[in-house]
Design goal:
It is a single chain. By secondary structure, this protein is mostly helical. The protein has one domain. The protein is built from nine helices and two strands, in the order H-H-H-H-H-H-E-E-H-H-H. Helix 8 packs antiparallel against helix 9. The longest helix has about 30 residues. The chain starts with a helix and ends in a 5-residue tail after the last helix. The mean pLDDT is about 85.
Amino acid sequence: MLWKRVLTALFLIPPVILGLVYGETHWVALISSIIILLGVHEWARLSNLHKLHQSTIYMLVIIGCLVGAYWCYKQNLGMFFVYAGFIWWLFVTWLIVSAEISGKIPQSSNVAKFFAGIFTLVPAWLSLLILHSLDVQEGPVFLIFLFLLIWTADISGYFCGRKWGKHKLARMISPGKTWEGVTGAIVACCLLSIGFSINKEFQLSESIIFLLICIMTVLASIIGDLMESLLKRSAIAKDSGSILPGHGGVLDRIDSFTAASPVFLSFITLAGLAR
C-alpha cells in the first residue's frame, strides 16, 4: 500500500542522509555492507539456494569479495571493480533487450545466479565507498546527489506511469513499467541535474556532460530494477522479501542503486568531474 511505502521512506531516509553527510567512510562501508548482506540473503533465496549450507557458503563468498574489494579500495585499485560492474550492466542490458525481442524469459542455472549476485552487489557497494571518499566535502555531496537522483527517478516514474502509462516498457519482464514512466523519470532527473550544475557552478560543457551522465544513470537504474524483476520472475516471487513494510525486501529497494552507482561513478570519473 502507498501509505506504507511513504511511512517506511520517511523513517529510513533521514538517517541515511545524516549518515552520508556526517559519517566517515569506514562507517559508511560497515552500514552499507550490512544492507548488502541482507540483500545477499534474499538473492540466495531467489536463486534456489534454500538449504542452510548453501546460503551460508554464498554469504561467506560475498563477505570474502567485499573484504577483497575493500583491500583494493585501500590500495587505490577499487575502480577496476567499478569498471567491471559497468561492463556487467552492459551485458545485463543486452540480456534484457534480447529477452524482450525474443519474447522468452532467459533461463539460467543456479551457478549463473550465484555469480550474477557477486557482479551485481559487490561493485555497487564499492562504488558507494569510492564516491563517499572522493573528497571530504565533494564525496558526500555526489553520493547524496546519486541517492536523490534515483529516488526522484523512482517517484516520478511511479506516478507518471500510473497517470499516463499506456505503452509497456518490458512486457515480458515487468509489465507494470511503461515508457511514459521512463519519460517522467528522465524529465524530473534532468531538472534535478540542471539545479545541481548551477549550484556547483559547472561550465556549460560540464553541465551538458553531467546532464547526459544523469540520464544514463537513470536508464541504468531502470535496468537494475528490471534485472531484479527478471530474477524474481524466474523464482516465481512477487517480492524479494518482506523486511520493509510496503516496499518488499531489501533487494526491492536497492535494485536501482546496484546498477546506477557503478555507472554514475564510472562516468563522472572518466569525465573528470570526480576529484
